[in-house]
Each structure stands twice: as structure tokens, then as C-alpha cells.
């Protein structure tokens, strides 16, 4: 039972707040947590109860909460410069972060990513990338109004991002408002069978052969589709996408908002395939989970298409941006996060953490009631068999009683802890999940 303090906070919440991805008809009945503070990998509620943050506060926290280096960087930046527009002026943390991201950009089959365009969150980064891709097409030959996307994709919730999504639960209501897209089968779709990667690649070839001249970009979540339930797939599909984009004159966009910044055991999921896109979006973990910031990394040839040339009768400027684009405090947090990640070899630690989680989850995968465990690095989905309504949610509620905070995607329970999680906390995470599955399945 809640104390009076928790009950009061929840009553005030119900009176004034509209939460994202939340059905408020049942909100208070679901016994929501009221978080008061956090430290390291722990969330602490208003009653002082501690919960291991098993999803990194929606996949954002890299080094844990309240990291002293990021705290110090934010405090120093606030004392120096709180905000200055990036429209026509610049500032030092924005320049330094751009240099750092370009230096960290993936290398391999594809162009060099040389420029950074800032946005505020994953959706707005995708929105910018889509507009860049379309405008690029109009300024390099002819207008190409179509995008190719994957079924079950999720790229955010603004209308452009929804248009290139393929998750009907989230997107069905907005279809009359959306951009022109063609959906290709997902190589992670288990319904396609064991040859799903080859089937998806063949269908992408067919789509591009038929529609390629009208396609300005192919957009994918590289290596794993997060909101679809952690549907992982083979790196060969990304190599096929790169080949087809080049063959048909389209751009290739990798949405690394969820997969980037070390989540998959590499700095970028693209590195698993040795493929470089023309545009790469990143966000979530870029500031270590502290502040909203995202970015589009762009190839030089894309950037150059936006430079005015002699004889132009119309401007080539990218007329897009936001008031808080490249906010200096956000950039300072990101710089501190990336510096610590480099100094402490956090990407390699994340790879090791992912392997340890995989080993600990082997007995869980064999449990009755577990359909499949899917993992790439520290991105993990544990799909459980549906027993009535909201089975995944009930597993997460059971885990919370054991001191672990998780969040489901349907009946797939997501595990995505901070990249620096210790061994004891890792065992707690998997142990609580295992016991919770047993409790619900009984």
C-alpha cells in the first residue's frame, strides 16, 4: 500500500498530467512509481524504495545517474553560457561536440560523415534527416517524393517519423496525414522463417527495381528494431541496403537513436556491418541520459548539395531548426559523457556486459512460457507467452516488487541497463526477471 505522500502525488498527477504512451483510464490502477531521485543505476521513489533502472530510463542512461563528471560539466557550462541561438551564430561546446561526433563516426563501406546538424530528440533528428533527404533529391537532379521503410519500424512520433514507421499500434490513426512510403519486409520478422534475412533483402531489391527512381531514401534501424520488440537481424541486409541505395541514387539513413552510443557493444550498430550511411541520426544516450539532444551526421556530398552555386535562382539553404538547437548545456553534457566513455573504454565494457547478460539469460530462455530471448549487446527483449491481457506488464510489475524497474513492449520485456552496470546489479536484474516470469506463469 502507498503512504499518504505517494497517494497525494498520484492524485495531483491524475489531476494535471497527460503522460506519453499511457492509457489514463487505467493509469492510477497500475500503481505507478513516483520517482524522487536517482544515483548510479538506481531510481529512488518518494518513499525511499530503490529500484534498479533496468531500462536506463527509456534507453538513455549510459554511465548511471548523477555521474560526477557530467554534473560538473553542466554546472561549469551553466556558469559560463546558458543558451545562445545556433541560427547564424555558434558557440564553443557546439563546435567541440561536432568535432567529437565526426571523429567517432563509423567508417567502412560508404561515405565519410563530416557534418553534424543538431536536433532535440530522436523524432526531431529523424524529421530533419527526412527533409534533408528529400531536399537533396530536388537539388541534385529531380524530386523524389518517396521513402522506403521497414515493416514494424519505429522512428519516432512526429508526423514524418511516423510516416517511415511501420508499427500499426502506434501509427494507424495518422495514416491519412503521412508522407508517401513503401514498406519492405523486416529482416527481423520471425514470421518470415529462418530465411528472413534473404527474403527481406530480395524484396528490397524488387522494390528498388520497381520504384527506385522515385525513392529519395531508404531508412532503417540498423541491426535491431527496438520498439518492435528487439527484432535483431543479419548484417548482410545493411550491406544490401547500401548497395541498392548507391545503385538507384537514393540516400541511406541509419536511425541510431536507440542503437548508437555503445548500446550494441560497438559505438554504432553500423559497425557490425562495416557500412556507413549517408545520414545517421543519434540521440538518447548522447548526453548520458541527462538532457534532450540529438543530431544528424551527414556525408560531405549531402552537405555540399545545400551550398549556393553561381547561377542558382533559388536558395539551397536547409530552412529547418529549433529555438534550442545545440543548446550549450546539452552539448557540454554530451561532451563529458563521450569523454568519460572514451577514458573508461565504456563501449568495450558494454560489449562485455552484453555477453554476461546473454550468459545469465540462457536459463531464462529455456523456461516454459518464454518464447524467445533476443539480444544485440545490451539491447535485450525477452518475449513471454501471452496469458490473458498484459502479460509483459505483469512481469514488469512483479520485477518491481523485487527491486528492479522494467518496461514492456507488449509481451516483450525489455532489458537495457546502464552500460557500466556492475556484476552484482547484473545478477539482480536477471534474477528478478527470472523469478517474475515464474510468478506470472504460475
Write up what this structure looks like.
The chain is an alpha/beta fold. It folds into two domains: 33-66 and 345-441, Aspartate Aminotransferase, domain 1 (Alpha-Beta Complex), CATH 3.90.1150; 72-343, Aspartate Aminotransferase, domain 2 (3-Layer(aba) Sandwich). It contains 15 helices and 17 strands. The chain has helices at 4-16, 56-59, 68-80, 92-104, 122-138, 159-163, 168-171, 196-211, 236-248, 300-304, 328-343, 346-360, 362-365, 391-401, 423-441; strands at residues 35-39, 42-45, 50-53, 113-119, 146-150, 181-184, 215-220, 224-225, 231-232, 251-255, 279-282, 294-299, 370-376, 379-384, 404-405, 407-409, 412-415. It has a seven-stranded mixed β-sheet, with helices on both faces.
